[in-house]
Amino acid sequence: MLNRVTAVAVATFRETVRDRLFYLVGFFGLLLVGAVTVLSPLTVGAQGKIVADVGLGGMSFLGLLVVLLVGANMVRKEMERRTITTILTKPVGRGEYLAGKYAGLALTLTCLVALMSLLYVGAVALTPAVLAWSHLAAVYLTLLELLVLCAAAVLFSALAGPALAALFAATLFAIGHLTESLLDFGALAGGPSRVLAAVAFRLLPDLEVFNVRAAVVHGDPVAAGHLALATLYAAGWIVVFLVLARAVFARKEL
Amino acid sequence: MNPPPMIRNRTTTPVLEIDGLAKSYRRGFWGRRAAPAVADVSVSVERGEIFALLGHNGAGKTTTLKAVLGLVRPDRGRITIGGVDARQRAARAKVGYLPESPYFHENLTARELLDFYGRLLGLADRRRRERTAACLELVGLADDRHRRLADCSKGMRQRIGLAQALLGEPDLLILDEPQSGLDPLGRRLVRDLLLEQKRRGVTIVFSSHIVPDVEAIADRVAVIARGRLVEIKDLRRRRPAPAYRAVVDARAAARLVAPADAGLTVVARDEDRWTVAAAHAGALGALLVACHAAGAPVIDVQVQGGDLEAEFLADLAAEAPAPEVAPC
Question: Could you give the CA distance from residue A108 to residue A54 in angstroms, rounded to a whole number?
Fold first, then answer.
C-alpha cells in the first residue's frame, strides 16, 4: 500500500515542480528584497519587524495561493482528463490515490516553505534584528496551516469543480481565522445565532491556532507546548478531511 | 500458495463475463432524472479472443467497459473477470486498460510515466526497468523515452497509453476506441500490436464505432445500440479473405510498387494518386513503412473484410426507437 501511495505522491510532486511552481520562491525573494530595501529605511528601528511581517505573511499568502490553484484542481483535473482511469484500473485503491495526491502536494508545500524560509533567514540577517527561534516556530505553524488547507482542498476537489473547490478552500481559510470572532458575535447576538456560531466553531478548524505571526513580529516567544498541540490539532484535521474525501470519492463515478 | 484466480480458472471460466448489465446516470439539478446508458448487456468473452463492442457514439460501449473496470457502479447485473467479481481490486491485477484519447501527466517523460505505472502494479525495480524498456520498444518509442508527454503528438500518446496497458503483462486488455483519431500508420501499428498480443494468448476487448477496424481484427463482435445488445456475430466463421488497399502519392508509388514479388498491384492510376492492392497484410505494412521512410504521403488505407458495415447499419435500422440514451 505504501509503495502505491508513494508512487502517486512522487508523480504529483514531479508534476508540480515541473509546472514551474517554484517560481513563486523567486517572487517571494522579490518581496523580501522590497521589504529590506524600500520599507526598512522608512521605519528606523523597526526594520526587523517589517521583514518579519512581510516574510511570514508572504509565505502564508503564497502557500495559500498554491493550495487554491493546485490543490483545489488536483483531483478534478485528472478526472476530466481521464488520467485517473488509468491509475484506478491498476490495483490501486481510491483512498491510496487520494493519500498519494495529498502527500505529493504536501511535499511540494513543504519544499516551497523550506526554500522561502532560507530566503527569509537571509533577509532577517540583513537587518539589525536577531533571528529568534520563534520566527522558525511561526514558519512551522504556517506550514501546518497550509497542510490542513491542502487536505481540505483535496476534499473539495473530490466534491466539486476547480472554481468551486477553490472558493470553498478560500472560504474555509477566511472563516477558519474568524471562528473566535464568530463565537463573540454569537454571544452578542444571542438566540439561534449563538447556537449556529457554536456549531460552526466546533465543525470548522480554528486556523488562528497556527497564527503566531503578530506575536513573533513583536518579539513574543512561542511555547513548545503550543507547537506540540498545534501539530496534533493539524494532524487531527488532516485525517478528518482525508477520511471525508475518501468517503466522497469512493462513491464517485468516473 | 494459491495461484492467481485467472490462472486457477484457466480451463473453464470465461475471461470476462457480463450478465444483464444495466446502468443509468443521474441527471438534473437534484439528480432525480435517470438517463439510461446501458439497458441490458450480457456477453461472455473466452480466453485468447479479440472481442469488439461495436456501436454508434453514445450506444453504451464506454459505460459497459467502465462498469467492467469498476469505474462506475452498475444498477443491475453481474460482472466477473477470470471468475472474480469485477468490483474486487484483485480482479484488475492482470487487466490492462487504455481509455479513449488518453491524457497523462504532461510533465513526466515517457519512461517516468511507465515507471510510475510499474510502481502502481507493484513491479520490483529491475522488473519495472525491463518492462518499461520492453513496452516502449514494442510501441516504437524507445528513442523517445526521455520526451515529455506535453511534447508528444496524439499518436505518440496513444502508443504510450498502449505501453502502460501492456506493462503488467495483462491477461485481459480492455481498450476504448484504440484507433480513434490516429493516422493510417498509427492505426496499422495499433492493429499489429493487438494481433501480436492475441498471438501471445492475451484476451482483448475493445470498443469501436468504426466497422473496418472491428472487421480487421475482431473474432467476435457485439453490436450495441441504444444501450442494448442487438446481436453477437462470430466473424471467424464468415470472414472472407480481407482486401488491403492503400491510396498513395503517384510519384512515390511508381518507385515503391515496382518489385513484382512485393505482393502489390496497382488497381487504379489517377493523375496524382495510385490505388494499390496488397496481397496480404504484410505487403500492405511493408508499403506503408516504405512510404513513411521515403516521406511519401499516404492518402488512405482501406481494409475491407466483408459486409459487416451493411449488416451493422441494418441492425441499427431494425432496432426499435428506445428511450433517450445518455452520452457516455
Answer: 22
